[in-house]
C-alpha cells in the first residue's frame, strides 16, 4: 500500500489531469490478460494500483511524472491492457498511467508515421489505409491494443512473416520517452537507441510518441485451408512462407484438436482436419491454389480481411491466430493455457513433429510462421492442457532440452525465458539513468535495484 | 539461307503486316548483347535473319505464324534485344519477330497487371507508378527491355533481393502464347504452366501477353556506400539484405578494381575503395545509416532513384549493377567479359573470399544479393579479364569444383550451365506440342529434334 498522505499529495499535484479513484475501475485497469497463465493468475490476480491517471498530452505525462517523483508514487504505464504477461499490472501499487488519450497522429509521410503512444492500432490502420499504407505488423488484439503498448509490451504478430519482429532492425525508427526524474526529461531515441524501450514494459521511461515504418496497403484475403493431417498443413505453410513471389501477412497452422474451439471455422471443416490460416494478397491467389492442391489441402474460406474487420458480427481471421487461438480455446475450456516457443530455423518441422510425438494431446500444436533475424521459422503457441505448475515447468524444460527455445509466458519479468535470460540490450543501465528511484513499473526488471528507494525521496 | 521462293511467299502472305528487308536493319535486329562474351561473339556475330516482321496485334502474330508454318520459315521472337546470351539471335535465318509494337496494357488491378509482351519496362513502370504500383523486378536494361523479353529471356534482377527470381512461384501469373502450328493456337497458361515459356527464349511459343504481380510503389533512394575493403562491403551487404525491417530493391557489392570504370561513381570515392550500391526505401534510412557506420562504411551518395531515371544526363544507380556493371567496364576495356555464378546460401561469403584469393585481379568481384527459393544469397557477375577460351572454361570449372554454381553466359542454348544442365520443366515436351516443326528460335533448345523437318512441310 502506498502511503495515503503521499497519494493525496500526488492527486493534489495532478491538478486537472483526469484521475480514476473508484476501486473497481482502478482494479480493472490494473489488469491485463495475464490470466491466460494459471501461474500469473495466482501471482497477479490481487495486484492493484490505488488510482489511474489519464493524461491527455505529453505535458500532462511530464507533469504526472514530476508529481510521482516528488510524492514517491510508483507508476505503471498502460495502453490497451492486452498483454499476457502482466506487463500493465502494478506489482507495488501506486498509479496506473493510462496513455490511451494520447492518440494523435503527428504525421504520415514517405512510408513512415509518427504517432502518440496511446493510438489504437485499429484506428491507425484505418487512417493509414486511406493514405495507401498499413501497419507492418500488429498483434491479434489489433482491435483494442495501442501502438505504445505493442512496442513496449509486444514483440511480433500478424505481419512478422514478412517484416520480422519489432526488435528487428528498422521496425522502430524513433521513440519519444518521458523519464522519471526531477524534472523529467523528454528524450528522443532514434534507430537502435529505441532498443532501450522496446519490450521493456515501460520500465525505462514512459513512451509518448513513436516513429514507425509502414507497409504499403494491400487488399488482404482471409484464407482457410483444410488438411487431413497436421504435419501436412505445417509443411504446406513452410513451403508457402518460403515463396518470395507471394505477398503474405499471416501463415498459421492449427491442430485439428483445437479446431472444435474455433467458432465459425469449425463449421467449415470435417472432424479431424487441421487448418492453415492465411492472409494472402490477391496477386498470390493463383499460385496459392496450386500449392494447396499440390499439398493435398482444400481452400474452405476465401474472404476479404478488411470487410470481416469492419462488418459487425464478422471476425477477421487474425482473431483466430497468435494468442487469440488460446483465447478462443479458453472460452471453451478455462483450464487450458499455452506456451511460447521458437523452433530453430534449420528444419523447424522436424522438431515440431518430435514435440508432437512427445506430448500428444497434452499440447495441441499451433504454429505461427515468422522471420527471426531474417531467417524463416515458426513459433509455437501450443495450447497446454494444464495440470500442475510442476508439470508445466517440466514441459518447458523438455522443450529446452530438445533445442526448442522458450519465452516463458508464465513469468511476469521482462527476462522471461531461456531465450531472454538476460536483457537484450543495456536496458538496465538506461533504467538507472532515467528511473533512478525505480518507480516505473517496479518489479518487472528482475535484477534492478535502485540506488535510492522511492521512500527516501518522498518528503 | 532460307529458300528465296519460300521467303517471297512468306512476305506475300504477310499482307500489310510491316516487314523490314533492308539487310543492315535486319542484321541490327538479329543481334543482342551477346558480344559481352568473346565466345558468343565468335559464334554469333555473323548470324542474321533475312527479314524482320513487326506485327501490331496478336492477330497479326497468329497470321505471321500461320504463314511461317506454311512457308517453312524459322521465326525468332525479339523484344528489346537486351539479352546477353544471343536469345534473340536467329541461328538458322528466317524471320525475326519484333514484338515491340504489341505494347498495350490490358488491365491493372488488385496488385496485378496484364500487358502485351512488347511493352517496355520503363513505360510500364511509369504508368504503374501513377496507380501506386511498380514492377517487382526488372533487369538493369529497364530503359530498353520489354516485359516479354524479360520473362522469355531473363531470370532476375533489380528487385530480386525481395521478390526472388522470375521462376520463383508467384512471380508470373499467366501467359498468352501463340503456337507454331497449322492453324496456330492461342494458349492461356496459368500459374506454374507459365514455367513452360519462362526463360525458354521463345522456343516454346510466341508470348503475346503476360499477367504479373506488382509491388507497391516506393520512393526508392539510390545509395552508394564506400568501404576500405571489398569483403567488408560484402559483409555489410549480406547483413543489410537479411534485415526484414528494411525495404530493399537492390543490394550490390563492387570491387575497388571495377570502380575506376564507373563514370560519376568513381569521382565519389578514394582509390582502392569498394562499393555497396543500394536502393533503399526512405523508412529504412535511419537504420541503414547505423549499419553503414557499424561496418566502417561511408555513404557517399544519396539520391532519388526516380529523379535520376527521368532526368536527362543523370544515371539511376541500377545502371551500374547486374550486367550493366560489365557494360560499364566494357566501355573502358573491350577485352573483359564476365561470369554468372551463384554462391550457396549457407555462408556465401566464405566462398566469395576463397574465389577472390584463387583468382585475384583476373576476376574483379561483383556481387548481386538476391533470394533464390526463399533463401538469401548472392550471385557473382564477376568481371573476367579474358585471355583464352580454354582459360575461361578452366575458370568456370574451378568454380564448379569449389561449389559455386555457374550459369554459363558463354553458351547460347537454354541449357546453359551446371545449374541448368537440364531444362527446368518439361519445356521440351511442350515444344513438341506447340512447335512440331521446330521453327521457333531453332537451335536454342539443345537436344530438341523436330519430328518433321520444316522443309518437309514447305510446298
TrEMBL record, chains A, B:
Residues 44-217 form the FAD-binding PCMH-type domain. Keywords: FAD, Flavoprotein. PROSITE patterns: FAD_PCMH. The keyword Flavoprotein applies. The keyword Mitochondrion does not apply. Signal peptide: none annotated. InterPro entries: FAD-bd_PCMH, FAD-bd_PCMH-like_sf, FAD-bd_PCMH_sub2, FAD-linked_Oxase-like_C, Oxid_FAD_bind_N. GO terms for molecular function: D-lactate dehydrogenase (cytochrome) activity; D-lactate dehydrogenase (NAD+) activity; FAD binding. Pfam families: FAD_binding_4. One of its GO terms (biological process) is lactate catabolic process. It comes from the Bacteria. This is FAD-binding oxidoreductase. It comes from Lichenicola cladoniae.
Amino acid at each position: 500500500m502506498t502511503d495515503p498522505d503521499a497519494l493525496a499529495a500526488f492527486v493534489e499535484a495532478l491538478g486537472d489531469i483526469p484521475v480514476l479513484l473508484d476501486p473497481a475501475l482502478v482494479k480493472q485497469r490494473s489488469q491485463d490478460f495475464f490470466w491466460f497463465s494459471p501461474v500469473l493468475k495466482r501471482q497477479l490476480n490481487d495486484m492493484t494500483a490505488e488510482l489511474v491517471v489519464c493524461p491527455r498530452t505529453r505535458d500532462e505525462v511530464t507533469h504526472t511524472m514530476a508529481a510521482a517523483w516528488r510524492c514517491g508514487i510508483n507508476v505503471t504505464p498502460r495502453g490497451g491492457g492486452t498483454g499476457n504477461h502482466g506487463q500493465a499490472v502494478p506489482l507495488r501499487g501506486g498509479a496506473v498511467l493510462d496513455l490511451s488519450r494520447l492518440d494523435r497522429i503527428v504525421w504520415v509521410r514517405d512510408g513512415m508515421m509518427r504517432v502518440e503512444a496511446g493510438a489504437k492500432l485499429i484506428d491507425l490502420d484505418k487512417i493509414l489505409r486511406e493514405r495507401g499504407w498499413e501497419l507492418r505488423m500488429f498483434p491479434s488484439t489489433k482491435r483494442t491494443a495501442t501502438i505504445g503498448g505493442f512496442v513496449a509490451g509486444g514483440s511480433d504478430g500478424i505481419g512478422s512473416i514478412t517484416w520480422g519482429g519489432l526488435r528487428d532492425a528498422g521496425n522502430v525508427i524513433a521513440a519519444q520517452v518521458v523519464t522519471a526524474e526531477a524534472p523529467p526529461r523528454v528524450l528522443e531515441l532514434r534507430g537502435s537507441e529505441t532498443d532501450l524501450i522496446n519490450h521493456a514494459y515501460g520500465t525505462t521511461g514512459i513512451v509518448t510518441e513513436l516513429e514507425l515504418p509502414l507497409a504499403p496497403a494491400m487488399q488482404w484475403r482471409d484464407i482457410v485451408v483444410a488438411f487431413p493431417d497436421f504435419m501436412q498443413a505445417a509443411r504446406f505453410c513452410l513451403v508457402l512462407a518460403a515463396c518470395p513471389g507471394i505477398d503474405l501477412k499471416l501463415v498459421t497452422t492449427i491442430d485439428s484438436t483445437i479446431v472444435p474451439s474455433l467458432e465459425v471455422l469449425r463449421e467449415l471443416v470435417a472432424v479431424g482436419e487441421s487448418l492453415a490460416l492465411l492472409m494472402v494478397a490477391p496477386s498470390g491467389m493463383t499460385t496459392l491454389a496450386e500449392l494447396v492442391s499440390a499439398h493435398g489441402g482444400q481452400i474452405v474460406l476465401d474472404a476479404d480481411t478488411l470487410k470481416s474487420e469492419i462488418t459487425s458480427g464478422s471476425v477477421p481471421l487474425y482473431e483466430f491466430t497468435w494468442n487469440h487461438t488460446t483465447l478462443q480455446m479458453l472460452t471453451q475450456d478455462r483450464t487450458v493455457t499455452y506456451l511460447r516457443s521458437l523452433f530453430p530455423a534449420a528444419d523447424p518441422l522436424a522438431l515440431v513433429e518430435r514435440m508432437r510425438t512427445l506430448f500428444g494431446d497434452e499440447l495441441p500444436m499451433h504454429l505461427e510462421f515468422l522471420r527471426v533475424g531474417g531467417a524463416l521459422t515458426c513459433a509455437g503457441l501450443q495450447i497446454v492442457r494444464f495440470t500442475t505448475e510442476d508439470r508445466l515447468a517440466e514441459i518447458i524444460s523438455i522443450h529446452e532440452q530438445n533445442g526448442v527455445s522458450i519465452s516463458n509466458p508464465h513469468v511476469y519479468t521482462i527476462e522471461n525465458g531461456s531465450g531472454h535470460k538476460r536483457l537484450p540490450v543495456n536496458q538496465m543501465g538506461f533504467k538507472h539513468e532515467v528511473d533512478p528511484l525505480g518507480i516505473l513499473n517496479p518489479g518487472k526488471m528482475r535484477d534492478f535495484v535502485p540506488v535510492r528507494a522511492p521512500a527516501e525521496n518522498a518528503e
